[in-house]
Amino acid sequence: MNPLDIHPEAAVDIEEAADFYEASRPGYGELFRAAVQARFDQVTANPNTIPLYRNSGCRRCKLERFPHYLYFLEVGPVIWVVAVEHPSREKGYWLHRLDDIRGTNDTN
User: Fold this and answer.
1) Phi, psi of 26, rounded to the nearest 5 degrees
2) What is the pLDDT of residues 34-82, one digit of tens each?
3) 76-100 burial by CB neighbour count: b if 16+ within 10 A, else e?
4) What is the rounded distance in angstroms from the CA atom of residue 65 to the CA atom of residue 21?
């Protein structure tokens, strides 16, 4: 399994979505977190089974039971979670995070 790291803004994506679902329907925040974790498990075990997303260099997969997409980037052996995006959000709002992640890798 590959190590997983989460961009700080992606962690905010996850928590904001979980809080929204929890406020809408008690228990759904935890269901959302479980769906995210299930994708993390899949991604760290077999990242190359997830298709590349356009020309971003990222891979994208949909969460189970929720309309969100998980975007991640492989940097060496590390899987970086770039965003957990709801389709109603502005497309590509997370692209600047790629520079943060690639810059982190350059300093190592």
Assistant:
1) -50, 135
2) 999 999 999 999 999 999 998 888 999 999 999 999 999 999 999 999 9
3) eebbbbbbbbeeeeeeeebeebbee
4) 12
Q: Read off the tokens for 20.
A: 């929204």
Task: Set out the domains of the chain in order of their start, with CATH numbers.
Answer: 4-106 (3.30.2310.20)
Place of tokens 């406020």: 23
One-letter-per-residue 3-state SS of 41-84: HHHHHCHHHCCECCCCCCEEEECCCCCCEEEEEEECCEEEEEEE
Q: Which two tokens stand for residue 44?
A: 């760290």
For residue range 2-37, list pLDDT tens digits in order: 899 999 999 999 999 999 999 999 999 999 999 999
